[in-house]
Design goal:
This protein has 16 helices and no strands. It is mainly alpha-helical. The chain has one domain: MFS general substrate transporter like domains (Growth Hormone, Chain: A, Up-down Bundle). The two termini are 27 Å apart.
Length: 405
C-alpha cells in the first residue's frame, strides 16, 4: 500500500507519525527529573550525568546523516520498523545499565534509533503533502509531539518517585513497543520504487554538498537549529534552576515543566489555524518575536527578583513562539527541495540536533553563575533565531503563499 502526495492527509497516518515523533522528546523529557537521582546512584557529578542527554542528541543528529540516503534507497517503512526496534531494545538495556558509562552508551544507540525514525517521518510528510497541507501536517505533528513535554516530565516524575529512575527507562521501552505495533498496523509505504535513489557513498556526499550550497535550504535550516538550541538550553538548565535554585521537588518540577510545555502545543495549533490566513512570512515573524519577547521577560524576571513566576512566565511566551516557528521554518526547509527528501530531512535533523547537543552542557556551565546567566543565554539564543529567520525570509517574496507553492 502506497500513499501519494495530496492536499488531504489521512488522520490515521498523521496521528501515527505524531506518535513516532513524540518518542524522541519523551526519551529526553521523561527522565529529566531523575538526573539528580542518577548522579547519586552512580556517585557522579551532574555534568557527567548530563552526558546521557548530550550523547543521545549527538546520535540523533549525526545518525540522521547516515540514515537519510538509506531511506531514499530502501523506502520508509522497513527502516522505520528497524529504528523503533533499536529504540525499544536500548531502552530495556538502559534500565539495566550497570554503570554510568554503560548508560551513556545505551543512550547513544537509543538516539540512533530515534534518528532513523525522525528521518522517516519528516520524509513521509513531504511524500504525502506539499504547500499549505505540508505546513498544517508539520503543525499537527508538533501539536501531537507537544503532548510529550506536557505529560512526559510529570509521568516521569511520578514513576521516579514511586519506582526509581530505572522504571522510567522501562516505561520508554513500553511506549516504543506500542508505537511499533501501531506503525506496523497503520503506516503504509509512502515512497514508490520508481522514486527511490541508488545507494552509494559518492552520491550521498554529492547530495549533501548540493544541499549545503543551496541557501534556500541552509538559511532556514540554521534558523531551525537555533530554535532547537534554545529549546535544549532550556531543557538542560530547567532541572537545576527549578529544583536546585527554586527548591521544587522532582514531582513539582515535572508538573511545572509540563505546564510550560503546553505553550509549544498551543503554538503549533495556532500555526495550523493561521497559516492559510497570514502566510508563511508573517506567521514565522510572529513566532520568533514571541520567542524573543518571552526570553527577555524571563531575563528581566531573574534580574529584578521576581523569581520563579517571572522566569516561568516568560518561558510560557517563548515556548508558544517556538511552537509556531518550528512548524513554519521546517516547512520552509522541506519545501526547498523536490527530490532526495530523506537526505534533506536527514541534513536538517543533523544540523539542528548537532547544534543542540552542545546546548545542555553549555547551560550547565552557565548555571555555575546562577539563573540570571542562564536566562541571558536563552535571550541571546532568541536574538540569533531572529537574525537567521530574517535572512531566511529574504529568499521568499513578501506575498509568499504556501497554497501555490
Amino acid at each position: 500500500m502506497q500513499t501519494n502526495q495530496s492536499s488531504l492527509v489521512p488522520l490515521r497516518l498523521a496521528l501515527s507519525l505524531g506518535l513516532i515523533g513524540a518518542l524522541g522528546p519523551s526519551a529526553v523529557d521523561m527522565y529529566l527529573a531523575s538526573l539528580p537521582e542518577i548522579a547519586d546512584h552512580y556517585q557522579a557529578s551532574f555534568t557527567h550525568v548530563q552526558l546521557t542527554l548530550t550523547f543521545f542528541l549527538l546520535a540523533m543528529g549525526a545518525g540522521q546523516l547516515v540514515f537519510g540516503p538509506i531511506v531514499d534507497a530502501f523506502g520508509r517503512r522497513k527502516p522505520l520498523m528497524a529504528g523503533l526496534l533499536l529504540f525499544i531494545l536500548c531502552s530495556f538495556g538502559a534500565a539495566m545499565a550497570p554503570s554510568l558509562n554503560a548508560l551513556i552508551a545505551l543512550r547513544f544507540f537509543q538516539g540512533l534509533g530515534s534518528a532513523l525514525t525522525l528521518v522517516v517521518i519528516m520524509s513521509m510528510v513531504r511524500d504525502v503533502s506539499h504547500g499549505v497541507a505540508a505546513t498544517k501536517l508539520f503543525a499537527l505533528l508538533m501539536t501531537i509531539e507537544g503532548v510529550a513535554p506536557i505529560l512526559a516530565p510529570a509521568l516521569g516524575g511520578v514513576i521516579d518517585a514511586h519506582f526509581g529512575w530505572r522504571a522510567v527507562m522501562l516505561a520508554l521501552a513500553g511506549m516504543g513497543l506500542v508505537v511499533w505495533i501501531n506503525s506496523l498496523l497503520n503506516l503504509p509505504e509512502t515512497l514508490p520504487h520508481n522514486q527511490r535513489e541508488a545507494l552509494s557513498l559518492g552520491s550521498a556526499c554529492r547530495t549533501y554538498l548540493t544541499l549545503l550550497a543551496d541557501r534556500r535550504f541552509l538559511r532556514p535550516a540554521l534558523a531551525v537549529a537555533a530554535v532547537f538550541f534554545f529549546l535544549f538550553a532550556y531543557i538542560g538548565g530547567a532541572t537545576l534552576v527549578y529544583q536546585a535554585h527554586y527548591g521544587l521537588s522532582a514531582q513539582a518540577f515535572g508538573l511545572l515543566f509540563g505546564a510550560t510545555g503546553v505553550s509549544i502545543l498551543f503554538g503549533a495549533m495556532t500555526a495550523s489555524h493561521l497559516i492559510s490566513r497570514l502566510g508563511l512570512n508573517t506567521l514565522t515573524r510572529v513566532g520568533v518575536l514571541c520567542m524573543a519577547g518571552g526570553a527577555c521577560i524571563s531575563l528581566l524576571g531573574a534580574l529584578t527578583g521576581l523569581g520563579l513566576p517571572g522566569v516561568a512566565g516568560g518561558m510560557v511566551i517563548a515556548l508558544f513562539g517556538l511552537g509556531i516557528a518550528e512548524s513554519t521554518l521546517m516547512s520552509l526547509v522541506m519545501a526547498s527541495q523536490e527530490k532526495a527528501l530523506g537526505s534533506t530531512a536527514a541534513l536538517l535533523g543533523a544540523i539542528q540536533l548537532s547544534a543542540s547537543a552542545g546546548a545542555a552542557p553549555l547551560a550547565a556551565v552557565v548555571l555555575n553563575h546562577g539563573p540570571t546567566a542562564w536566562a541571558a543565554l536563552l535571550a541571546l539564543c532568541t536574538l540569533v533565531v531572529c537574525l537567521l529567520t530574517a535572512l531566511s525570509l529574504r529568499d521568499t517574496p513578501a506575498s509568499f503563499s504556501l497554497a501555490g507553492h
